[in-house]
Amino acid sequence: MAGDHQPSTTPSAELCNRPANVFESSSMVSFIFFGPSHGGERSSLILWSRSVLLSTVVIMESFDVVATTGFFKLESFQKTFGKKSGVEVSRKLDTIRGIRSIDRSSECSEVEEILMLSVQEYYVPASSQSGIVNAVLCGEIIGLILCGWVTERAGLRWTLVCALVALSVFLFLLFFAKGVGMFIAGQFLSGVPLGVFQTLPVNYAQDILPDSLKPFLTTYVNFCWALGGLLGSAVQRATMHIPGDWSWRLPIALQWIWPVPLVLGIVLAPESPVWLVRSEKEDEAMHSLHRLTPKPDETYEVIARTNAHEKELTAGVQYRDCFRGINMRRTETTCMAWANQMVCGSTLMYFATSFFQEAGISSDTAYTLTPVLYAVGCVGTFVSWFLIACLKRRTLYLAGNFLMAVILFGMGIVGVFPGILAANWAAAVSLIAFTLVYDCTIGPVCYCLVGELPSSRLKQKTVPIARCVYLLLSIILNFLIPPMLGREEGEW
Q1: Sign of the C-alpha dihedral computed for residues 176, 179, 182 and 184 taken in this order
Q2: Which of 376, 375, 370 has its CA nearest to residue 355?
Q3: In the chain, what percentage of residues exceed pLDDT 90?
Q4: Burial readout 333-362 (b: 16 or more C-beta within 10 A, e: otherwise)
Q5: Global model pTM greater than 0.85
Q6: What is the DSSP letter of 488?
Q7: Which residues of the chain have pLDDT under 70?
């Protein structure tokens, strides 16, 4: 975004139709990491690193989601939290009887023995899968609601620190779970701090960064999602052959690695000067600005004037004001921007391992392809930085939706040719291509729009509303996707 552009006050239609022309005087790499060249000013690398640090907490949420959905195909997890697959056994027995009726030779007996050994005796029902995945989403909704209330009183840093500590405690329930009920309870409680992570990194970036850098650091949140998925799926691939429950307990235990360095880094990072000014802590705000900008006095004056103006505007403002007049359109557009991330078909990415296996790919290969899928997502986020700088927001959204619809249509066509190796691989490659398009367009651009579309006085209310819409759609789709991919409930 240009330096004189004010995201919170620009009409939504103009925001969607204008590119971010920020590279007129410097190269992309130097601009992103060091900002525009101004003699005597401190490098913006400090601001970049602070925002990156807080955005890294999003990796934990993505890691948890991807790792959990990968558990559903692990034999040890199926035995602990699933039930016997009578449908699969009967199918195998019917196949064996058919072979025996044709050929009663000794070779047929060997085939029968091999087939009997390959029967999958346990599976996690679609209802349990939906319950496990949706439990964390329900917790995230509560965390999202609590986040605004706690942040107003404790600040962004200490809210994140408390959320990290709480998550470390709730992970014990998941690690020591003995039944599906205990696992779902652990997922729900873990979802509360994970919900806090969903909006605070974006708000922190909006508070400390200049307008020219905001598009890149807000879209970096999407990179963290992809990176968390990459790490979660890579850990799944590395631990899938570990005997016993450690094949699923170990990925959960690895999540205890994150909080310690993140807490230390967040404690040492400066508090948001915007929050400090709003809390009437002028001295602390000046101290924070001295660490963030070479011109603290000028920046403080701008923040103070903006805060006084917003106090006047927001006096008596309530949630119902988001649905009145022109703000109704802003709220609708913000909600649709985030809802589109879910309804475009991205849920398939979170069930990538199950999708690959049901498409006819072997288990080992499926667990190998999943990290590849998320690695492609990371690359796509970096590509989006170039696209955001050159193309309009609306153009990226429409083009991304069109290309993803074409890919999904192609996946549906190859799905009518089951058992053909080329068709199986075509479906797998199509999902990876879908991920690339998503992370070049819809995924990262959404984080720009949700910070730009709401009005300044209603942003703190509009963004949580939009995110709740996203989470509610996630819950609905997570009830639909498992039966679509599973063979036990209805063979969708």
Answers
A1: positive
A2: 370
A3: 20
A4: bbbebbbbbbebbbbbbbbbbbbbbbbbbe
A5: no
A6: S
A7: 1-51, 85-120, 210-212, 313-316, 456, 486-492
